[in-house]
TrEMBL record:
The keyword Transmembrane helix applies. Keywords: Membrane, Signal, Transmembrane, Transmembrane helix. The chain crosses the membrane at residues 189-214. This is Apple domain-containing protein. It comes from Hevea brasiliensis (Para rubber tree). InterPro entries: G-type_lectin_kinases/EP1-like. PANTHER family: G-TYPE LECTIN S-RECEPTOR-LIKE SERINE/THREONINE-PROTEIN KINASE SD2-5, RECEPTOR-LIKE SERINE_THREONINE-PROTEIN KINASE.
Amino acid sequence: MDYTGVLTQYSYPKGSNGEQSWSIVQYIPEDICHAIFHDFGSGACGYNSYCSMSNGRPNCTCPVGYSPMDRNNPFGGCKPNFPLGCGVGDASENLEELYELQELKNVNWPLGDYERLQPYSEDQCRTSCFQDCLCDVAIFGNSICWKKRIPLGNGRFEIGNSKALIKVRKGPWDYPGPTCSIDKKEKSILLGSLSASLVLNAFLLILAPLILFLKPKRKSDRIASTMNKAGVLIE
């Protein structure tokens, strides 16, 4: 089994004259993109990514406007490069001026749709997704419009009549993510707490050896006081 989760069976001809080589007999499963499929799972490639097969192994791809969560892990899923959802931008703005729908043929994220509209034309599906701040992706096919929001699971390439309409932000958008800042008052409290902790630790380090040194001496004094005049220890 390799790192993709696919078990590959190889064979080597018996009595080879040196010109033969290992050959692949089968892959298990044959299509891991469709084999890993669950209502609450991310699929073979992680959330917001889609899976396609090449030479028996999965390839994971981020849709336009998305980038890998971890560039060292192709199966870790993808994240949007811009903010999505309700409350983004000016409420008075037309969402069609902020976003555009990028078309991705033969790609689907089955399950997880929160609204199904039919019979619908592609233009109606596009308009509905534009006007709905919850809609991040719409899948259109056979006069049916499935509206979905991230995170998208079970993404995969599949031949058919459907297409994915990916909502992406128009133009450049700086989205550095959340930051953490500390104001001057909080900084002073933090520094004061650290200073007090350092002083207390230093005091304990000095006090501990003195306690250990004095304890045996006190014990010997108590033993001497319990001896009678004949030199017999009274317990």
